[in-house]
Inverse folding.
């Protein structure tokens, strides 16, 4: 027997179709998943095919008409390459407990990880290497970093040290960066990419701050990479020093299989000499009495 269609039933159906969506939490799991899909520039169909689910099901999840299971959240966030910190947030928005541990790097549980990081940095001597978090705050560094940061204003190295701020600040390394405009452009592009990938508002604020710094009077665009054969590899960092120009190429290392939020956000920046002169100069500098290792 079919239920009768009464005015009350019609009113309830109208509310569910038109009013209920407007009351949906804007930070619901469906909204967060949709935002990350759009950030990755994927259509619903493309993500559905990748995740081996129906487009209709994905549409229902994003609109809030269907609540995702825990496994569904994990599957979609994996295919969307969502950072672990944000995966936890989506799990909680869907009503599940976070599964990725989030501990400060100085936690006793991460003593082994800290030792490995420092071993990597010290093994890169006599060339500079440092570890940073996702906001470019220095976590650890080797001796060579202290050599290169000599002369940086005290307020830039007091407390947490943001290495991008030190790099471009007029009282930091800016006046010593020979190819300042090229290096500045390289940092802006890299930071913009990280903002696009992570949607981190603190990185957006950092980029705005860096863009507000004045360009040193003596700064000039120097296509040094072309003259040294590195144009197709990377933008070098070229610094003045008492030993002459020091030219470095940087590489980035991450813990790609980390299942801990903190470790997944640690990046090791290692600088290699781009020419024989820099290699010799760094070896000579390493023979001098050791300065204090820069404090993170």
């Amino acid at each position: 027997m079919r239920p009768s269609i009464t005015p009350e039933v019609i009113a309830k159906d109208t509310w569910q179709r038109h009013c209920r969506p407007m009351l949906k939490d804007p930070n619901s799991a469906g909204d967060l998943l949709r935002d990350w899909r759009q950030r990755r520039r994927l259509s619903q169909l493309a993500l559905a095919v990748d995740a081996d689910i129906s487009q209709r099901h994905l549409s229902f999840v994003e609109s809030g008409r269907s609540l995702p299971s825990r496994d569904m959240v994990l599957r979609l966030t994996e295919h969307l390459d969502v950072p672990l910190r944000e995966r936890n947030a989506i799990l909680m928005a869907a009503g599940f407990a976070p599964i990725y541990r989030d501990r400060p790097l100085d936690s006793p549980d991460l003593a082994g990880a800290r030792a490995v990081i420092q071993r990597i940095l010290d093994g890169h001597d006599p060339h500079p290497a440092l570890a940073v978090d996702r906001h470019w705050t220095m976590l650890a560094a080797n001796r060579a970093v202290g050599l290169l940061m000599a002369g940086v204003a005290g307020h830039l190295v007091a407390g947490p040290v943001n290495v991008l701020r030190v790099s471009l600040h007029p009282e930091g390394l800016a006046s010593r960066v020979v190819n300042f405009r090229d290096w500045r452009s390289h940092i802006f592009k890299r930071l913009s990419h990280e903002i696009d990938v992570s949607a981190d508002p603190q990185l957006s604020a950092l980029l705005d701050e860096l863009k507000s710094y004045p360009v040193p009077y003596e700064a000039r665009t120097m296509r040094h990479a072309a003259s040294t054969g590195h144009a197709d590899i990377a933008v070098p960092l070229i610094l003045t020093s008492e030993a002459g120009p020091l030219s470095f190429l940087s590489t980035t290392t991450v813990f790609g299989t980390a299942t801990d939020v903190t470790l997944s956000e640690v990046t090791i920046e290692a600088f290699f000499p781009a020419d024989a002169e820099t290699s010799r100069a760094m070896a000579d500098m390493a023979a001098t009495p050791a300065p204090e290792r820069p404090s993170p």
